[in-house]
């Protein structure tokens, strides 16, 4: 078998077999196929596409390119959640304690933030002492004991994806449905969960800008997971404005805690309940989404989800007192309101730009080596559909550097767009896709 022949086959619109895909991924991961040939293949796939069978085979080959986490020592049906990323996306901080409070084993691998989107691990490290550097044994023990553990992705988890993504990033071949879906799902399948819920974002702050593209990606990933024997659900949710009000690591942790106390953003709470309900229904723990959402709401009402968050933070070396006393979390030295320059109804928020404002303040990474400031960010006062008077606060910025604060304020003032007429608030949940569809 020769890579040259496979490139030509796909270039001419042919369908790659399972064996051909396995050969290609195995030899590329092991350095036997050079970058220039794989670049040619990625471009051929970009223009010719892949059918459902090819996409599943590509995903499984990438998942098996390194370690496949064995979670068989964990009792019960292991559940996991993945978000395609967005601004202010702190759903894991709210959802995973709710699920664990119901006795569901949450075994999750998460990543760090890069660019304008935040990472779950960075947010969790806002708790003083918190560590995601768990051994596989510690990871499994924590899930069995308290029903929840989150650790960083290991270097040996789907290494083919790491190599391929780096290549696609510099060859303009990122934006292809099969390649995006296989990249996400190869890591999820390698992580070993039995049931997975996907939060696929759409809008100005998301990778998938249109609802049509987000829906197609969600359906493709559900099909892949179902073909691999996993219980799958996907929620397509709005990212045309930040999720909740807080953007920035410690600020988002505070909002997540408020949500678990029964306060905070309704959008955030409702999305977490919808994601959790999808999991409960998929594994047969509930007969309907509505019933499942009621079950999840009870973990907030009775305080069990908040208690589980504290237990989880303590188990991974963090200061659990910060769950109950959020002033123990990192705090910025400069806090300043941003007034609106005009009156009107908020028509649109450039969500990606809001994320970049947090990045400017030091709350995100421009490169993987960048140091981040866990205390900085912003808290929105107004969102789409709200009316604001000129001079009224749009947001509060938290900063530690006066020059960064100045730059961030200047950038933020371009993110809000107004209308003289009332604006309808956008539907937050766009679609629910299950493995049965």
Please tell me about this protein's structure.
This protein is of the alpha/beta class and 437 residues long. It folds into three domains: 3-63, Transferase, Pyrimidine Nucleoside Phosphorylase, Chain C (Transferase, Pyrimidine Nucleoside Phosphorylase, Chain A, domain 3, Up-down Bundle), CATH 1.20.970.10; 79-325 and 430-434, Pyrimidine Nucleoside Phosphorylase, Chain A, domain 2 (3-Layer(aba) Sandwich), CATH 3.40.1030.10; 330-419, Aldehyde Oxidoreductase, domain 3, CATH 3.90.1170.30. Helix content is 45%, strand content 16%. It is built from 17 helices and 13 strands. The strands form four sheets. A four-stranded mixed sheet has the order 1-4-5-13, sandwiched between helices. A four-stranded antiparallel sheet has the order 6-9-11-7, sandwiched between helices. Strands 10-8-12 form a three-stranded antiparallel sheet. The protein starts with a helix and ends with a strand.
Summarize the SSE layout with pairings:
Elements: H1 3-11, H2 18-29, H3 35-48, H4 52-63, E1 79-83, H5 91-101, E2 106-110, H6 120-124, H7 136-146, E3 148-152, H8 159-169, H9 177-190, E4 195-202, H10 211-227, E5 231-238, E6 246-247, H11 249-260, H12 266-282, H13 289-301, H14 304-315, H15 321-324, E7 334-339, E8 344-349, H16 351-361, E9 377-380, E10 387-388, E11 393-399, H17 402-412, E12 416-419, E13 429-434
Parallel strand pairs: 1-4, 2-3, 4-5
Antiparallel strand pairs: 5-13, 6-9, 7-11, 8-10, 8-12, 9-11
**Main sheet: which strands, in order across?**
1-4-5-13
Which parts are unreliable, with pLDDT below 50 for 5 consecutive residues or more? none
Q: What would you say the CATH architecture of the largest domain is?
A: 3-Layer(aba) Sandwich
Rg over C-alpha atoms, rounded to the nearest angstrom = 22 Å
Largest β-sheet summary: 4 strands, mixed
The total count of helices amounts to 17
Q: What is the count of structural domains? A: 3
Which of globular, elongated, flat, extended, rod-shaped describes the shape? globular
Q: Mind telling me the CATH class of the largest domain?
A: Alpha Beta
**Roughly what percent helix?**
40-55%
Distance from N terminus to C terminus (CA atoms, Å) equals 37 Å
Structural class: alpha/beta
**Beta strands, count:** 13
């Amino acid at each position: 078998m020769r890579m040259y022949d496979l490139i030509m086959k796909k270039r001419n619109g042919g369908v790659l077999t399972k064996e051909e895909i396995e050969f290609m991924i195995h030899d590329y991961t092991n350095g036997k196929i050079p970058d220039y040939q794989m670049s040619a293949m990625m471009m051929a796939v970009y223009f010719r596409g892949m059918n459902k069978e090819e996409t599943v085979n590509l995903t499984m080959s990438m998942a098996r390119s390194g370690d496949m986490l064995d979670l068989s020592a964990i009792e019960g049906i292991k559940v996991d959640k993945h978000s395609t990323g967005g601004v202010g996306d702190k759903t894991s901080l709210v959802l995973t304690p709710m699920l664990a409070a119901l006795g569901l084993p949450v075994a999750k691998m998460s990543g760090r933030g890069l660019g304008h989107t935040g990472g779950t691990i960075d947010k969790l490290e806002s708790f003083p002492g918190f560590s995601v550097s768990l051994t596989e044994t510690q990871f499994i023990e924590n899930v069995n004991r308290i029903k929840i553990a989150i650790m960083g992705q290991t270097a040996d988890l789907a290494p083919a994806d790491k190599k391929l993504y780096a290549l696609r990033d510099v060859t303009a071949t990122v934006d292809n449905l099969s390649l995006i879906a296989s990249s996400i799902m190869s890591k999820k399948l390698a992580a070993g969960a039995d049931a997975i819920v996907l939060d696929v974002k759409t809008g100005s702050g998301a990778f998938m800008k249109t609802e049509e593209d987000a829906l197609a990606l969600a359906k493709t990933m559900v099909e892949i997971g179902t073909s691999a024997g996993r219980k799958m659900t996907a929620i397509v949710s709005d990212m045309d404005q930040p999720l909740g009000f807080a953007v920035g690591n410690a600020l988002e942790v505070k909002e997540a805690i408020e949500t678990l106390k029964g306060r905070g953003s309704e959008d955030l709470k409702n999305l977490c309940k919808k994601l959790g309900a999808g999991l409960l229904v998929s594994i047969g723990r509930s007969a309907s989404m509505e019933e499942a959402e009621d079950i999840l709401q009870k973990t907030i009402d009775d305080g069990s989800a908040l208690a589980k968050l504290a237990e989880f933070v303590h188990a991974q070396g963090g200061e659990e007192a910060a769950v109950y006393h959020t002033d123990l979390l990192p705090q910025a030295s400069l806090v300043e309101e941003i007034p609106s320059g005009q009156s009107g109804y908020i028509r649109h928020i450039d969500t990606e730009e809001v994320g970049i404002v947090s990045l400017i303040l030091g709350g995100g990474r421009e490169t993987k080596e960048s140091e981040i400031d866990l205390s900085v960010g912003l808290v929105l006062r107004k969102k789409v559909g709200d009316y604001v008077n000129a001079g009224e606060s749009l947001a509060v910025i938290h900063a530690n550097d006066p020059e960064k604060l100045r730059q961030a304020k200047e950038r933020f003032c371009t993110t809000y767009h107004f209308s003289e007429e009332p604006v309808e608030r956008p539907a937050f949940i766009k679609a629910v896709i299950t493995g049965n569809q």
